[in-house]
Structure of NAD-dependent epimerase/dehydratase family protein:
Amino acid sequence: MNRLLITGANGNLGREMRTRLTHLAKTIRLSDRGDLGEAQAHEELMPCDLADKEAVQKLVEGCDGILHLGGQSVEAPWEVIRSANLDGMFNLYEGARKSSVTPRIIFASSNHAIGYHKQTERLDAKSVTRPDGLYGVSKVFGEAIASMYHDKFGIETASVRIGSCFPEPQNHRMLSTWMSHEDFVRLIERVFIVPRLGCPIIYGASANAASWWDNREVAYLGWNPQDSSEQFRAKIDAEMDPPAGDDVNAVYQGGGFCGDGIHED
Amino acid sequence: MNRLLITGANGNLGREMRTRLTHLAKTIRLSDRGDLGEAQAHEELMPCDLADKEAVQKLVEGCDGILHLGGQSVEAPWEVIRSANLDGMFNLYEGARKSSVTPRIIFASSNHAIGYHKQTERLDAKSVTRPDGLYGVSKVFGEAIASMYHDKFGIETASVRIGSCFPEPQNHRMLSTWMSHEDFVRLIERVFIVPRLGCPIIYGASANAASWWDNREVAYLGWNPQDSSEQFRAKIDAEMDPPAGDDVNAVYQGGGFCGDGIHED
Amino acid sequence: MNRLLITGANGNLGREMRTRLTHLAKTIRLSDRGDLGEAQAHEELMPCDLADKEAVQKLVEGCDGILHLGGQSVEAPWEVIRSANLDGMFNLYEGARKSSVTPRIIFASSNHAIGYHKQTERLDAKSVTRPDGLYGVSKVFGEAIASMYHDKFGIETASVRIGSCFPEPQNHRMLSTWMSHEDFVRLIERVFIVPRLGCPIIYGASANAASWWDNREVAYLGWNPQDSSEQFRAKIDAEMDPPAGDDVNAVYQGGGFCGDGIHED
Amino acid sequence: MNRLLITGANGNLGREMRTRLTHLAKTIRLSDRGDLGEAQAHEELMPCDLADKEAVQKLVEGCDGILHLGGQSVEAPWEVIRSANLDGMFNLYEGARKSSVTPRIIFASSNHAIGYHKQTERLDAKSVTRPDGLYGVSKVFGEAIASMYHDKFGIETASVRIGSCFPEPQNHRMLSTWMSHEDFVRLIERVFIVPRLGCPIIYGASANAASWWDNREVAYLGWNPQDSSEQFRAKIDAEMDPPAGDDVNAVYQGGGFCGDGIHED
Amino acid sequence: MNRLLITGANGNLGREMRTRLTHLAKTIRLSDRGDLGEAQAHEELMPCDLADKEAVQKLVEGCDGILHLGGQSVEAPWEVIRSANLDGMFNLYEGARKSSVTPRIIFASSNHAIGYHKQTERLDAKSVTRPDGLYGVSKVFGEAIASMYHDKFGIETASVRIGSCFPEPQNHRMLSTWMSHEDFVRLIERVFIVPRLGCPIIYGASANAASWWDNREVAYLGWNPQDSSEQFRAKIDAEMDPPAGDDVNAVYQGGGFCGDGIHED
Amino acid sequence: MNRLLITGANGNLGREMRTRLTHLAKTIRLSDRGDLGEAQAHEELMPCDLADKEAVQKLVEGCDGILHLGGQSVEAPWEVIRSANLDGMFNLYEGARKSSVTPRIIFASSNHAIGYHKQTERLDAKSVTRPDGLYGVSKVFGEAIASMYHDKFGIETASVRIGSCFPEPQNHRMLSTWMSHEDFVRLIERVFIVPRLGCPIIYGASANAASWWDNREVAYLGWNPQDSSEQFRAKIDAEMDPPAGDDVNAVYQGGGFCGDGIHED
């Protein structure tokens, strides 16, 4: 690629990807509301509020790839979700539609779009959504925007329902949802390499033994996660008790989010 | 019911329902941004902007049933959709959650939530969404809100993907999508009568021969549409040519919406 | 048919069928543990305890059709269920296997074999069983016996998961489960007329608007229920309130059975 | 339509359709290898051997609709099937591809394309084929030709797996497979009226109670068969015994064809 | 666990598990009708006839895990099956229900619950049962008991349809059905470790290349069989011919059981 | 086996298999229209035109296994396809039916039988066919012949929809479709070893990361491809650009065949 835009580049996941994707494009354009530090040789820094439509238009212009990690990444009051994840998503796709180069987009969706499914269910890309909060609803919205811009304008998006993308799983539930940074990088490579992407839904998890998710619908991507959470099981077992059988962390795929109420302002 | 709220009571569908649902509740509370005329004996008029959270809270308070027809009902610029259908939907469900009486809700969703499916496909409640514009995206969002408030707080909603609810079908596509006012009334009765509703997706169409939609997942409601668009076929054939085979009105379930672009402000 | 055996002929359903099936066979052989009254011209009375293997052997001998209504028909202690529905079923099929004429059998199974499915689910013959008590478990057992004797010995059985076979539905749940006596007779006729029966699972309900059950797998039988419970809805609405939304009668297909415990001796 | 071509116009079904479809086109072009009699005012007679590629090219030229009833309509030796149904089908579609007007085509496929499915199975358009002889194989071939010319050249075909299209069903099996002439006419009308046909598989049977076939995939056509074989059941029961349970006419959907061998020359 | 009960501890599988599960509980309580030998330090020996309800009640009391291997493990006359597998199963679950500690249970079900499915079919947990004898019927019964006690009382059971659990596969059919002792131990560990088990159906087989069974529904358990029967193929090929293509051992999943009759007393 | 016939033994794939299958039969009978070179000790050379029915009868006589690689293997004019793939297939199966030994057959079908499915779809053996040319249609025909001869005469065939069987994948599309010669040999071994084959559809591809095909329906064969195209990805990336997203090689599973027209004579 010529220019890859990473939004949310100052978030945890954004900082990881900033250093791991340098082989994918000549220039990496980085954006965030927060501090982006020093630009490296191949980097462009473009701080931007995703709720600012005109700024987003400039941000997107000229990029042939976008890794959209930006926006609100956990539950929050409605106004926060609305600006960051609804306005932000709309602005990004309007920018993409009007850009002189049509970008291919990876949208960081979330397991919280399907969080109220039980852990004894097995989901694939055709499963109905069951969001577990306003954050999850905003991800269903984002996937709908991606679907519509694909059907109407041909913009291709990979919506990745990310499980838990950390260096290590941090509790028993994450033994099912964990995705290693390396596996995420492998997925990003595949999305930008395949000649025809379409607009798939992808579950973002490593090859965990205790997975609930089935990526059979996107076999054509050729993404093969290489890591597994099993190597961390003994460590987690040693550090904490598993949740009780009727704990939301043991019942629902979305875990703790399912037990929370709505965030008042 | 004690008190049934009808939002959007000044719209076409709202005005029809205002006169046809009087047997369902002791009091009908009517709301709209526009003029609501004179209150009848059993009516309460409460003009309200759905984007006004506090007003909506008062509007919902004390209602045990809500027929939510309000909001933007065709494609429009983002800001309009956002206020009417995103803020409005959130405010309505927050109102329901905080109300002293938990209402059962009928949400007027739309075929435009699945509009980019082809007319040669047959859909049911488990089919993936494919919205055909910002309006359609807002309906996917609305169904997600309903799903989440059901899973999290137990509020029951019937999301009705309304086809074309007019006195008569007006073109060839509507021979597939038409729902008579009488059949809609029958559906509303069933939704409020069954002891356990859950949170179903319902396709709102009469018993049309040329239907694309299969309500098998909601057989338990006992709704049997009695009307059929076939009686109007000859009339429509006489009035106009059918669309060409590659016309969006013949290709996609969402018809003309699928051929339109995004409304700029 | 030459000789049709009706077991449980002194039960409510047995007494109805005794008078309605006279056109199906030259001789109707009637059996029950209880009093069978006076034999009509075309009738043979053979009182019999289904737990008595030798007696059952004689009972079955020479019959080319069996309507097996006998056994325990509601929840009961284990010993009662075991004798009537486990021993009884085994004895009946051993009798059929050893008989000089291989009979075709209708087994009165029950909705309680799938009673813990929720009323918002739609079942067909492939749905997994979820029995709602020892009685329901005995019906799963009976269907398994029928399946095995079909695969191993070619004996054909129609297992009918009877809903509620009364003159009229008696409460709101039965608006979904009711089967008229006339529709049951129509079904019995079809089972004995089709040249090849196989070993189907059939949901025994009239053409009720509010059905939860789908008989698509047995379309080849040509059974078309003619009655519907809707005609009784107003009467039931007038006589009683519908169950509350969280009442077992509104939640589970098996209704009240799902709320009961195990019958101790 | 301007000009509708009927091939096989001298066959039983062809002669029926010749008189029943006059409202569908200004000119009906009739073709057969056999005698076509006198031309009526609106008719063009063009005798033609379907195995003659050049003649077929002329036959198809200028037709906007084709009802392809021609070819070999029962089992026959390979050379007969090959000429009439393989060469004939190829020639017809090559003709259609090269014609100055692209026709919409109805292909008279057959239940013998799926004849080895058992009568206790229920099929829809997605079921795998199981042809019951060379004739059935030729129909699978024909559907494949239709599919390929649709995907490659956009020619639309309705492949109708005709059951038994006679004035009355003639035996017990036909109570499941019968299609009245009137229902076939209704289907032909729908195929030529809908703006977008695609390339569907349709089971050609009336609304028979004992059907094995499910047309759910083509609900969008709006075809509602009005007749049912049930009215003839008593008559057939009076005229003949039903086939024994292990007779091919009672076991397989294709009936007697399934018991036959291969026709040697 | 505090106390794990193993029933059938003197059977082949029971003796294996007695020595391999010592890491799972502080105390292993062992039961059988036969001789249990000397108790090891961490063992409790409680000989018991499963048909003796009161004895079973005492046996179960205080156990937080049960591995139910007891009962009749091959085809037998009805009275034997009934006592060991029907009475025994009922008594065990009544014991569990009344125990001061609710145990989690592993029920040794069997491939003979689905034995009449052909070897060319692929099954998962939703496939219909097709028992291949009285033994297989008793396993369908057992799974029904487990399902009912889960829905009614919340007792969690893993019903494991064990294929062939021997040190090595012993014939060609077992190349498909074999489960190594090590893989069974791994499964038992997973069942007792996951916080929420539910009431799943699990196919008990190693990662055999020629498997007929798909455990996709229980991916959430995180059970990954590590062994494969392929390593024994050459040995079996050398020792015996494969069964002929129409031998029951080559046709049905249940193998030889499918060719046997009913055991008379 | 006693005698294995390989047709098309002078083709690319035939020459490979000639040397790799010597362990499978005492005698390898080789056939082709072209030059077959020198016979090795265990070989019989029988040049033959598959369109010559009598010659094919002699060719097949006495073989207990057939690897049918013969016929036209790429798109060609109708007459060529008809002789080689329609007549040839019919002749082969008539030969098999009349042979004194009933052979088991491997039919080299092709991915072009399903070529018009998009690369974003995932197929299994139950997916509908979508041939991408006359060659693809002839493979659908061949699978239908195999199905019919199995249902009617019990002849067992493995129809292998071969992807791309070359020493190495030669372009990006083949990273999805490639099958190594070694994996094909493994498949052939399994087909001839299993006691009961039936008449399965098998996708012939190695364990490629980017596969579109799911062989779940034939797990019972125990075929485990060992190779993967991923090892060649870097090489192909270095040698050529991937096809553009709207290139037929990136859109359809059949690749370039989907962009071609019909071959005129």
Observations:
- The mean pLDDT of chain F is 97.
